[in-house]
Amino acid sequence: MEIWVNPACSKCRSAVSLLDEAGAEYTVRRYLDEPPTAAELAEVLDRLGLEPWDIARTAEPVAKELGLKTWGREPADRDRWIEALVANPKLIQRPIITADDGTTVVGRTPEAVRSVLPENH
Question: Strand 27-30 to strand 2-5: parallel, antiparallel, or no bridges (unpaired)?
Answer without folding.
Answer: parallel
